[in-house]
Amino acid sequence: MATLILASTSLYRKALLTRLGLAVECVAPGVDEDSFKTKGLSPQKLAEDLATAKARAVAGQNPGRIVIGGDQLLAFQGEVLGKPGSFENAVNQLLRLSAQTHELVTAMTVIGPDGEAHLHTDVSRMTMRPLDRERIERYLRLDMPLDCAGSYKIESAGVSLFESIVSADQSAITGLPLIALTAILERLGVKVPGEFVKDAK
Fold first, then answer.
1. CB-based burial, 181-194: b 16+ in 10 Å, e otherwise
2. pLDDT in the model for residue 34
3. What does the H/E/C string look like for the chain?
């Protein structure tokens, strides 16, 4: 079986796949995400369309290969929250999310060797603790999640900001729903777990 292709340069998503013993090649999809964000789509539809566009863009250059595309959006009160980009914007995002529930929408599209698309979406409900500015600033200095939607890194100290997380697949929160991915890959003839052993550090 040829190496899987991940239509992303995300180290987090690649790490999730290597956890399953799967060898993966990362390819930047080159999709203009901003053009999708002007279409007035719901957060879930936007994530799904982006995941599919990324997978199709890479699959078009790699016929006969299995390509995995993913996208993740944070939705709060019907609005998609982007990456803060600055410390002060991150403070304001977390003050807004404090003691509230938001949704983390993780969409994944797998293109099989025959070109058929397999789409799966996981919506996680994320409830934050009440947060004051001092606690927020202390957290931000530790993780510096300025390139993360919602201004937190759930796989790091950001988990301490939450009161509860409800998700059908915890791995979806960090980038890819591995339970659904395993089922799709097995239908496509891929053995999971695989036999790829990550180089020892």
1. bbebbeebebeeeb
2. 87
3. CCCEEECCCCHHHHHHHHHCCCCEEECCCCCCHHHHHCCCCCHHHHHHHHHHHHHHHHHCCCCCCCEEEEEEEEEECCEEECCCCCHHHHHHHHHHHCCCEEEEEEEEEEECCCCCEEEEEEEEEEEECCCCHHHHHHHHHHHCCCCCCCCCCCCCHHHHHEEEEECCCHHHHCCCCHHHHHHHHHHCCCCCCCCCCCCCC
CA 102-104-107 angle, 5° bins: 150
- Which residues are catalytic, by number? 71
- Topology (CATH) of 4-187: Maf protein (3.90.950)
pLDDT band at 63 (very low <50, low <70, confident <90, very high): very high
All structural domains of the chain with their residue ranges: 4-187
Helix axes 133-143, 87-97, angle to 10 degrees: 130
Structure tokens at 58: 């890479």
Site of tokens 């957060």: 43
For residue 14, which phi and psi values (nearest 5 degrees)? Answer: -60, -40
Please tell me the distance from the alpha carbon of residue 35 to that of residue 42, in angstroms, as a whole number: 14
Quote the CA–CA distance of 10 and 161 in Å, as a whole number: 23
What digits encode the pLDDT tens for the residues 129-174? 999 999 999 999 999 999 998 999 999 999 999 999 999 999 999 9
Rg (CA), the chain: 17
